[in-house]
C-alpha cells in the first residue's frame, strides 16, 4: 500500500494525471505574468513598479495608502508666457487723486460741477456714488441711474492726469449731500466732495439801455436793452422814438432782435440802424411788458467839408439844421471891420511908396 502513494509507487495513470496538472499550472502562471492580471501571485507588483521605475501620471498624483508619490518631473511644471519681456518690469506708480475743491456751493437750478482729478489711473475705472445711496451713480463716463440731470465729463491731460467731473445740469435741493469719487481697485481709494444747494437770491425788476449817445453820420446806431422781472423773464419789450412806436413799415432801416437768457432770467433786445443819418437823432425808449421804461438821447453828427481837424482850431461841425456863427457872411460886423482894415492898410502902403519916390 505504501508504494501506491509514492511517486514511484504510483500507478501509471496517476503519474500521467499529475504531469498534466503541473504543466497546466505552469502555463497559467506564465500567462498571468505576461498580462498583469489581478489574479497574479503578487498584487502589489504594479505599485512597486510605478514607484521605482517611472514617474506617476497626473491621474495618480497625490496620496495613496498614507504615502506620497514622488514629485512630478520638470516637464510637467507651468512655463512662463513667451510674450513677457526680458529683464525687470517697468515701474508703474499707484493711482492717486490730485488736490481740488471739496466743498461746492451752488444755487438751485444752476449748473453744479463736482471735480475729481486722478493721476496714473492706468486700466482702472473711476466711479461716483452718493454716501448713503444703494447704487453707483456712474462708472467711467456711463451714468448708471435713470437721471437725465446727471452726466460725467471726462478730460485728459499730460502726465497721466485725467478729470472725471460729475455734472448736475440743474441742481436740485435733494441733490445736496456728500459724494464719493472712487478708483475701482483692490484697495479702496476715495475722494469725497460735499455739495450744498442754496436758494437762488431774488432778482429785482430792472431795465437799462446801453449804447452811444453821439454817433457820426454814416456809422451804425446800436442800442441794447436788458430787462428782467426778477424770478421770471419778461414776455416782450417795445421800442419808441420821440414817443412813436417803432414799426417795421415806418422804420425800414431799423433792425430789432430779441433773445432770452436763462442764466440771468432776462430778455435782451438790440436795436441797430445802419447807416445812421441826421433823421435818426432823437429820444429812444425801451419799455418792457411789466411797464419798466429806460430812455437814451441819440445825436447823429453831420460833418461839413470845411471842418477843421479836432483840436487844431474852430470846429464847424453842426448838429441837425442851422448856421455857423463864425462865418463872415453870416456876421455883418465881422465883414465890415475886415473891409475897413483892408482900406487903411492900402492907404498906408501907398503913402510909404510916394515918400520913397520923393
Automatic annotation (TrEMBL):
The keyword Repressor does not apply. The chain crosses the membrane at residues 334-353. SUPFAM superfamilies: Immunoglobulin. Residues 93-183, 205-299 form the Ig-like domain. Pfam families: Ig_3 (PF13927). SMART domains: IG (SM00409), IGc2 (SM00408). GO terms for cellular component: neuron projection membrane. Keywords: Membrane, Signal, Transmembrane, Transmembrane helix. Residues 1-29 form the signal peptide. GO terms for biological process: synapse organization. It comes from the Eukaryota. This is Kin of IRRE-like protein 2. The lineage of its organism: Eukaryota, Metazoa, Spiralia, Lophotrochozoa, Mollusca. The gene is LOC106074843.
Amino acid at each position: 500500500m505504501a508504494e501506491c502513494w509514492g511517486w514511484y509507487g504510483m500507478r501509471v495513470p496517476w503519474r500521467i494525471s499529475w504531469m498534466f496538472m503541473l504543466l497546466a499550472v505552469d502555463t497559467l502562471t506564465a500567462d498571468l505574468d505576461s498580462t498583469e492580471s489581478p489574479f497574479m501571485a503578487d498584487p502589489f507588483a504594479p505599485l512597486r513598479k510605478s514607484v521605482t521605475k517611472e514617474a506617476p501620471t497626473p491621474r495618480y498624483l497625490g496620496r495613496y495608502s498614507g504615502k506620497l508619490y514622488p514629485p512630478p518631473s520638470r516637464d510637467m511644471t507651468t512655463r512662463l508666457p513667451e510674450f513677457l519681456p526680458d529683464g525687470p518690469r517697468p515701474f508703474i506708480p499707484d493711482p492717486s487723486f490730485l488736490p481740488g475743491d471739496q466743498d461746492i456751493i451752488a444755487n438751485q437750478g444752476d449748473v453744479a460741477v463736482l471735480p475729481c482729478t486722478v493721476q496714473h489711473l492706468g486700466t482702472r475705472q473711476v466711479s461716483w456714488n452718493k454716501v448713503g445711496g444703494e447704487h453707483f451713480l456712474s462708472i467711467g463716463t456711463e451714468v448708471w441711474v435713470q437721471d437725465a440731470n446727471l452726466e460725467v465729463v471726462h478730460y485728459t491731460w499730460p502726465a497721466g492726469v485725467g478729470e472725471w467731473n460729475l455734472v448736475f445740469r440743474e441742481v436740485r435741493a435733494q441733490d445736496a449731500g456728500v459724494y464719493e469719487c472712487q478708483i475701482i481697485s483692490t484697495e479702496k481709494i476715495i475722494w469725497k466732495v460735499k455739495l450744498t444747494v442754496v436758494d437762488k437770491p431774488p432778482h429785482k425788476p430792472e431795465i437799462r439801455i446801453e449804447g452811444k449817445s453821439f454817433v457820426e453820420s454814416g456809422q451804425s446806431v446800436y442800442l441794447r436793452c436788458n430787462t428782467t422781472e426778477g424770478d421770471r423773464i419778461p414776455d416782450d419789450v417795445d421800442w419808441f422814438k420821440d414817443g412813436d412806436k417803432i414799426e417795421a413799415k415806418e422804420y425800414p432801416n431799423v433792425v430789432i432782435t430779441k433773445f432770452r437768457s436763462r442764466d440771468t432770467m432776462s430778455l435782451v433786445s438790440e436795436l441797430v440802424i445802419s447807416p445812421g443819418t441826421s433823421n435818426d437823432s432823437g429820444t429812444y425808449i425801451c419799455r418792457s411788458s411789466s411797464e419798466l421804461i429806460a430812455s437814451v438821447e441819440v445825436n447823429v453828427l453831420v460833418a461839413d467839408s470845411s471842418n477843421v481837424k479836432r483840436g487844431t482850431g474852430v470846429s464847424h461841425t453842426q448838429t441837425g439844421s442851422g448856421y455857423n456863427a463864425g462865418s463872415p457872411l453870416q456876421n455883418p460886423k465881422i465883414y465890415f471891420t475886415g473891409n475897413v482894415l483892408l482900406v487903411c492898410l492900402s492907404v498906408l502902403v501907398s503913402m510909404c511908396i510916394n515918400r520913397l519916390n520923393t
